[in-house]
């Protein structure tokens, strides 16, 4: 039987924030802050773990945003996303955490985060924020 990862109702309500040591996201100045334009980023190799069973979850992360003064630095984003690999976190919490952290970092004019989890047990989950 698979060992549980310490899931509790409190864990779910916190969104998996405690015990999740993520590297700091970095940003750089937007050179075209005088106009609206979309930046689209995809990461097809996102992984985390189910907080109840410890089973691995695999997902495609899509981030779309209209920057204001700052743009996310891609190396820091890659390292940030990779840090979820062993985290026990619900699908909904992944998308909302990404949205919150990117919003706090960049304060973009618009931001959309979509996380499409691959099938596990015949179920596909897609969570969209923004």
Task: Describe it.
The protein has a single domain, classed as GTP Cyclohydrolase I, domain 2 (2-Layer Sandwich). It is built from three helices and six strands; from the N terminus they run H-E-E-E-E-H-H-E-E. The protein has 130 residues and is α+β, with helices and mostly antiparallel strands. It has helices at residues 9-14, 74-82, 91-106; strands at residues 27-29, 39-49, 56-66, 70-72, 110-120, 123-129. 24% of the residues lie in helices and 35% in strands.
Secondary structure topology:
Blueprint: H1 9-14, E1 27-29, E2 39-49, E3 56-66, E4 70-72, H2 74-82, H3 91-106, E5 110-120, E6 123-129
Antiparallel strand pairs: 1-4, 2-3, 3-5, 5-6
Question: What are the salient characteristics of this protein?
Answer:
24% helix, 3 helices, GTP Cyclohydrolase I, domain 2, 130 residues, two-stranded antiparallel sheet, elongated, alpha+beta, 4-stranded antiparallel β-sheet
Superfamily (CATH H level) name? GTP cyclohydrolase I, C-terminal domain/NADPH-dependent 7-cyano-7-deazaguanine reductase, N-terminal domain
Radius of gyration: 15 Å
Count of runs of 4 or more consecutive helical residues:
3
Secondary-structure element series: HEEEEHHEE
Our measurement of the CA-to-CA distance between the termini, rounded to an integer number of angstroms, reads 38 Å
CATH class reads Alpha Beta
Strand order in the sheet with the most strands: 2-3-5-6
Helix content: 10-25%
CATH architecture: 2-Layer Sandwich
Please sum up the structure shown:
This protein is α+β, with helices and mostly antiparallel strands and 130 residues long. The chain has helices at 9-14, 74-82, 91-106, and strands spanning 27-29, 39-49, 56-66, 70-72, 110-120, 123-129.
């Amino acid at each position: 039987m698979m060992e549980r990862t310490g899931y509790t109702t409190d864990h779910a309500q916190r969104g998996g924030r405690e015990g999740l040591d993520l590297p700091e996201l970095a940003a750089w100045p937007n050179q075209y802050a005088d106009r609206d334009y979309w930046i689209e980023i995809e990461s097809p190799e996102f992984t985390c773990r189910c907080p109840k069973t410890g089973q691995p979850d695999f997902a495609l992360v899509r981030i779309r945003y209209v920057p204001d003064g700052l743009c996310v630095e891609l190396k820091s984003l890659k390292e940030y996303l990779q840090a979820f690999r062993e985290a026990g976190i619900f699908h909904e919490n992944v998308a909302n955490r990404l949205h919150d952290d990117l919003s706090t970092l960049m304060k973009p004019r618009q931001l959309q985060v979509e996380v499409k989890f691959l099938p596990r047990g015949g179920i596909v989950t897609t969570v969209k924020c923004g």
